Amino acid sequence: MREDDRLATVLRTVRAGNGFEEALEQILQIVRLGLVPAGERLPAERELAERLGISRVALREVLRALAEQGIVESRRGRYGGTFVLPHGAAGGPARGAAPGPLRGPAADPELSDTLRFREVLETGAAELCAARGLSVAEEVRLGEALGATSEAALEDYRRHDTLFHLTLVELAGSPSLTAQYAAVRATLNDLLNRIPLLVRNLEHAQRQHTALVAAVLDGDGESARAVAREHCAGTASLLRGFLS
């Protein structure tokens, strides 16, 4: 099978909402599947960008994030390009990472089940919050939780992110839903702690958090559900890319 044919089985046009995360997931799949072996060069930026349906500027953000994690390396010159590195060749993960990004993949059934259950609970909670309406005190509490994620230091981000999502779910008004979500969030955090923190992804997540809160405060259940689903999909793309 020609390289173009092999890559075509993985590379596809990404969706607009989570372009960074989905593009990163697909390039990680190329590496993890060995479609481009260690020491070999990824397709040219122009080709990759066209296949993924993103700009070359957006692609470079993805490649920069992968380079920071020691997964690829950019080389200049006549024979330059972006090359796949042997695992751990670049000195280990960047700040904020737990174990190396390509080590200890999660079992697919566990990962898929956690991601699906999380999406069901969070999208439902977001819609319920918007539909029931929040009191002034509850609006303040949700706003404070959002603000804490915006101001959090990198090493504290995941804790504040967890508290934000728990707050949103609790404000849906169902103790049973909150208990179920707390359990699945604990599993999700175990998985998140095995992948690196990527600043570009965190910035994108914050915009989604803000849009989610705005939809809830506007009483727009349909929009709240849609934003929550898109947010969950972005996290799922990262986890599948690093762990599947």
UniProtKB/TrEMBL annotation:
Question: What is one Pfam family matched by this protein?
Answer: GntR
- The residue ranges of the HTH gntR-type domain are 17-87
Q: What are the UniProt keywords, alphabetically?
A: DNA-binding, Transcription, Transcription regulation
Q: Which InterPro entries does this UniProt record tie to the protein? A: GntR_C, TF_FadR/GntR_C, Tscrpt_reg_HTH_GntR, WH-like_DNA-bd_sf, WH_DNA-bd_sf
Gene3D superfamilies associated with the record: GntR ligand-binding domain-like, Winged helix-like DNA-binding domain superfamily/Winged helix DNA-binding domain
- Record keyword DNA-binding present: yes
Q: Does the keyword rRNA-binding apply?
A: no
Write the protein's name.
FCD domain-containing protein
